[in-house]
Amino acid sequence: MHVLIVGAGIGGITLAALLEQARVPYVVLERSPDVRPVGSAISIPPTVAPLFKQLGVYDELLRHSQPLHTATNHTFPPSKPRVDDLTFMKQRYNDTIHIITRQKLYNILLNLVPKDKIHFGKSVQTIQHKPEGVIVHTTTNESYYGDAVIGADGSFSTVREIMYKELQALGLLPKEDAALPFVSGHCLVGVTSVLPKGAMVLPEDECRYETLTCKSQPFMTGCLSQPDGSVAWYALQPASSAKTREEMCLRNVEWGAETIGDMPDEIRSLPCPLGQTMGFLFDHTPKETMSKVLIE
C-alpha cells in the first residue's frame, strides 16, 4: 500500500504522521513552495486529545497551549456580555479544551514527518486511474504512483475537482455537489508578537477568549490569549449576497499576506475584546503572517 497525500496543511500532515507511525509508505505533495506561518488559533477539544496521545505529542501540545474555561461575547455598542462556562468538559471528558496557535500545532505535527517525504512546489494537474493503482501528474511534469490518493488540499481542492468531473461525466455526481460551495464570509486572521507588558490583561494559567459582535457594522472579532504573552485574533465579515459568495468562491483564495486587502483599515477603530483597538493588534502583528481566508 502506497498513499499519495495532496496537501501539506494540518490535515495532510496529521495523516502523514499517522501513516508514518503505522509504517505505511506515503508521500505528501504540496503546491506551495514552503510552509507559511499564517493563521490564528485552533481549539483542541477533549474528544480529539486521544489523537495527539496516539502520536506521542500530547505533552508537547500542553506545553504550547492553554486550557479554555470560559468564552465571553461582547456587543458594540456595549450591553451585558454573555459568558459561556466550559468547565463541564473536565467532568464529562476528564480533559478540557486547549487553545494553541495554528503555527505551533503545525510545527508539532511537522516534526513527526521526515522532510524527504514532503515535496513542496508540486501542484496536481491530472490524476489517472489504472488497474494497478493511480498516477498523479504535477504541473512540474513529474508523475507519482500510488495505490490511493487522499485530497487534503483545502476548500478549493484540486483532487475533489478532478473527482467531481469524472463523476459528472458518468452522470453520478449529486446535484448539490455540482454547485459552488456555500461561503458564509471571509475571515482576517493573525497572531501578534509578544505584547508590551501591561498592554492587556492576559492570564498566565488559562486562555482568555473574548469576542465582539458589532451591531452597527457587519463584523465579528475574537481574541485568544497565548502562553507567551501574544494574542491570536480573527475578524469575520459575512458575505452580503449570493453574488458576493460566488465571486469569493471563484477567486480561489490562498493563505497568505497578499490576500488581506483593505480589511484591516476598515476595522482598525473597532474596540478589541481584550482592550485597546483592533488596530493595536494589527500594528503588533507581523504583516507577512496575516491572512484572509474564506469560511465555508
From TrEMBL:
SUPFAM superfamilies: FAD/NAD(P)-binding domain. PANTHER family: FAD-BINDING DOMAIN-CONTAINING PROTEIN-RELATED (PTHR47356:SF2), FAD-DEPENDENT MONOOXYGENASE ASQG-RELATED (PTHR47356). This is FAD-binding domain-containing protein. InterPro entries: FAD-bd, FAD/NAD-bd_sf, FAD_mOase_fung. Keywords: FAD, Flavoprotein, Oxidoreductase. Belongs to the paxM FAD-dependent monooxygenase family. The keyword Oxidoreductase applies. Residues 2-162 form the FAD-binding domain. One of its GO terms (molecular function) is monooxygenase activity.
